[in-house]
Write a structure and sequence with these properties.
Layout: H1 6-13, E1 22-29, E2 36-43, E3 56-59, E4 72-82, E5 91-98, H2 110-119, E6 126-136, H3 169-182, E7 186-191, E8 197-206, H4 209-228, E9 231-233, E10 247-252, H5 254-257, H6 261-274, H7 276-282, H8 289-294, E11 309-311, E12 318-320, H9 322-327, E13 332-334, H10 343-354
Parallel strand pairs: 1-5, 11-12
Antiparallel strand pairs: 1-2, 3-4, 4-5, 6-8, 6-9, 6-10, 7-8, 10-13, 12-13
Helix pairs in contact: 2-10, 3-4
C-alpha cells in the first residue's frame, strides 16, 4: 500500500481559496443504516443554514438505496456544520435521503423522529448519548493488541494513562478537536474498559438535534480514522469475553429537571418498563439481535430479556444517577441502546413512550 505523505496534502489544503466559492460536503446514511457516504460540491456563497444549501442527488443504486432503472435519490440538507477537513469557509451538511417520489428511503428514520419531536417540543426533551467504539487496525484486530493473542484482562484500561494501557489516544484527541471545530456538541471523552475501546459524549441536545449531532460526530470519527490508516468498529460485541460497546442515552424533560422531578422520572421508567421488548427492537442495527450478545447480565449490562432499574446501578436497564436521586430531580440513563443504534430511532422511541404514551 502506498504511503500517502500528509505533509504533501498540507501544501494543497493551505492554499487560500475562500474567494473562489465555498466547498460543501453532503453527508448521508446509506442502505446499511450504519455506514456514511459523502460527496462535495462548490457553492458560490457560504451557506449560513441548511436551507441555503441546494438539494442534490446521487446514484442510489451504488449505495443500495434504489434500483438502476430509477437510480436518482435526493439529498435534503437538514443540519449544517463547519468542515474541519477542508478548513477555511468549507461546510459539512447532514442530509436526509428521499426517493424520486419524495418518500423517505428505508433507513431515513429522521423524518418520523422529527414528527415526534415537533409534537413534544413543549416538553423540551434533552439528550446526551455516550458513544462507545473500538479502533481496529487494517489487520482486522483491535489497534495495539498483540498480533497472535490478547492483552491482559480487563481492569487497568478504563480512563487509563500509559503506553502499555492506552491505544489510540492521538485518534481520540484529533476527533475531539475536529468535532469542536465543526460545531458538534461533543462534551467529553474517555478510554473504556476494553483496550482500544473509547467513548465520546455528545449533548445536551434538544429534540432532533441529538441525532443530527451524533451522526455528524460519527462521520468525523470515521474521517479522522481514515487519515490515521485505521478503522472504527461500532459493533456492540466485538469479543464475547470483553465488555461490549453501547450508546447509553441520558434523557430528561423539563418537568424532570424541575423541583420534584424525580416523580416524573419514575413515571417515565414505569412507561418504559411496559414496552421493553418494543424498544429493544429499535436499540440496535439488527432489530435487537446485536444486543442479545451484548446484554447478557455480565460486563456491566442488564439481561436482554428483563427490564430493571436502580440508583447508580450499572447492571440495570435504566440507571438513575446518584446525584439526581439526592437532588430529587434530573435525568435517567437508558443503558440498553447499542453502539450501532440509530439515534433517531432511540430518541424517537423514548419520547414517544414517555411523553406521547
Amino acid at each position: 500500500m502506498v504511503d500517502l505523505d500528509s505533509s504533501i496534502l498540507s501544501r494543497y489544503l493551505d492554499l487560500v481559496t475562500d474567494d473562489k466559492g465555498c466547498l460543501v460536503t453532503y453527508v448521508w446514511i446509506d442502505s446499511t443504516g450504519s455506514n456514511l457516504r459523502s460527496k462535495t460540491r462548490t457553492l458560490s456563497s457560504v451557506p449560513q443554514k441548511p436551507s441555503e444549501c441546494p438539494r442534490w442527488d446521487f446514484d442510489g443504486s451504488s449505495t443500495g438505496q434504489s434500483s438502476g432503472l430509477n437510480s436518482d435519490c435526493l439529498l435534503i440538507p437538514v443540519a449544517l456544520f463547519d468542515d474541519p477537513f477542508f478548513g477555511g469557509n468549507a461546510k459539512l451538511v447532514l442530509t436526509e435521503v428521499l426517493l424520486h417520489d419524495g418518500s423517505p428511503v428505508e433507513t431515513n428514520n429522521r423524518r418520523r423522529c422529527l414528527q415526534i419531536m415537533e409534537k413534544t417540543k413543549t416538553s423540551h426533551p434533552w439528550f446526551g448519548i455516550e458513544q462507545e467504539y473500538v479502533i481496529f487496525g487494517c489487520d482486522n484486530r483491535p489497534f495495539g493488541w498483540p498480533k497472535n493473542g490478547f492483552p491482559g484482562p480487563q481492569g487497568p484500561y478504563y480512563c487509563a494513562v500509559g503506553a502499555d494501557r492506552v491505544y489510540g489516544r492521538k485518534i481520540m484527541k484529533s476527533h475531539y478537536k475536529a468535532c469542536l471545530k465543526a460545531g458538534v456538541k461533543i462534551c467529553g471523552t474517555n478510554a473504556e474498559v476494553m483496550p482500544s475501546q473509547w467513548e465520546f459524549q455528545v449533548g445536551p441536545c434538544e429534540g432532533i438535534e441529538m441525532g443530527d449531532h451524533l451522526w455528524m460526530a460519527r462521520y468525523i470519527l470515521h474521517r479522522v480514522a481514515e487519515d490515521f490508516g485505521v478503522t472504527i468498529d461500532l459493533s456492540p460485541k466485538p469479543y464475547d469475553d470483553w465488555n461490549g460497546s453501547g450508546a447509553h442515552t441520558n434523557y430528561s424533560t423539563l418537568k424532570m429537571r424541575e423541583d420534584n422531578g424525580r416523580l416524573e422520572i419514575d413515571k417515565a421508567i414505569e412507561k418504559l418498563s411496559l414496552v421493553h421488548t418494543l424498544h429493544m427492537r429499535d436499540y440496535d442495527l439488527n432489530h435487537g439481535e446485536d444486543n442479545k450478545r451484548r446484554l447478557t447480565g455480565l460486563h456491566e449490562t442488564a439481561h436482554y430479556s428483563q427490564f430493571s432499574f436502580g440508583v447508580a446501578n450499572r447492571m440495570a436497564s435504566i440507571r438513575i444517577p446518584r446525584q439526581c436521586a439526592l437532588n430529587g430531580k434530573g435525568y435517567l440513563e437508558d443503558r440498553r441502546p447499542a453502539s450501532n443504534c440509530d439515534p433517531y430511532l432511540v430518541t424517537g422511541a423514548i419520547v414517544n413512550t414517555t411523553v406521547l404514551n
